[in-house]
Design a protein that fits this description.
This protein is mainly alpha-helical. The chain has 2 domains: about 80 residues, no CATH class; about 80 residues, no CATH class. Helices cover about 80% and strands about 0% of the residues. It has 8 helices and 2 strands; from the N terminus they run H-H-H-H-E-E-H-H-H-H. The chain has a two-stranded antiparallel sheet. Helix 2 runs antiparallel to helix 3 and helix 4 packs antiparallel against helix 6. The model has no long low-confidence stretch (mean pLDDT about 80).
Length: about 170
Amino acid sequence: MSGIETVIINLRGMGFPLILLWLLTLSVVYGVLSHVEMPKSISARGVISIVAAFMVLFAAAGGEAAQFIENMVVSGIVIAFGLLIVVIFLEISGSKEGGHGGIHIFAKHPKIFGIAIIVLTILIFIGAGGLGILNLPAIRITEPLLAIFFFLAVMGAAIWVLMKEQGTKK
């Protein structure tokens, strides 16, 4: 085998076709939405295109990814419902820092609540079987794990470009 054939085989093994599919879907949907200026908000176009790209990716990836997403969505809904109940009770009790005229507890401590939401999201990911998908129980750096990191880097770069474009159009 020549060097080019080896590179192509390795890229296929790392999931490169799925990354290209994600990028293609992201760019086409974002381009069409920008061309017709459908949502006026540029960030809304970005979110719509990212969600569409993930939907196409999960449809292409198949069974295990679909089961993982289902577990995450169900767990997320249960946690969101629980948080909604907590917020309702906090609103009913009128819990404000400094008495009745004080600042609402969520406005007073936004970083703490943000960190709590991030921790809950990580726990949902772990509970839905995310560590099994990432092969983390053995903590080995393998080609699929490198492919996931590469995919996350490409996704981060695409989101950064979308945010940069939003900043220049203000």
